Automatic annotation (TrEMBL):
Organism (species): Turnera subulata
Coiled coil ranges: none
Protein name: Squalene cyclase N-terminal domain-containing protein
Lineage: Eukaryota, Viridiplantae, Streptophyta, Embryophyta, Tracheophyta
Keyword Isomerase found: yes
A GO BP annotation: triterpenoid biosynthetic process
Length: 148
């Protein structure tokens, strides 16, 4: 059984409380009022809050950095997809994600060193396309690039 389902079953009482809210069926021929939207949002937030643990996290299966490592190419970079050749966008975003997850700059099996070298040898992180710069700015890593 999936971890979230198991957790939800343990918190079944809280889920049952959500059933007290009126049922909502949205159809094209029915006007959507503020009350309808309010009920939908309350049910959604209520359901997801039942999945949240007491200390604030949502339990689930997460492999952390192991999710990114299989896509690493021999040259030290990552592509846009798992079988793709290394690109600045794929490498910078994967490198940033690993750093944000706690990977050390020079730690581990050399993955971070090789990725950083790939980035620097191909023009640096500022050479990533605008989409990559946007995501780096959202994570507050652009324009500082402290992770290199």
């Amino acid at each position: 059984m999936h971890v979230c389902k198991k957790f939800a079953r343990e918190k079944k009482l809280e889920i049952l409380k959500l059933r007290r809210l009126p049922s909502v069926k949205v159809r094209r021929d029915v006007e959507i009022t503020v009350e309808v939207v309010d009920n939908i949002v309350r049910k959604a937030l209520g359901f997801h809050s039942t999945l949240q643990a007491e200390d604030g996290f949502w339990p689930g299966d997460y492999g952390g950095p192991l999710f990114l490592l299989p896509g690493l190419n021999e040259d030290g970079g990552w592509g846009i997809h798992i079988e793709g050749h290394s690109t600045m966008l794929g490498t910078v975003l994967s490198y940033a994600a690993l750093r944000l997850m706690g990977e050390e700059i020079n730690g581990g099996d050399g993955t971070m060193v090789n990725a950083r070298n790939w980035i620097l040898n191909h023009g640096g992180a500022t050479s990533t396309p605008s989409w990559g710069k946007l995501w780096l700015s959202v994570t507050v890593t652009y324009p500082f690039f402290f992770f290199l």
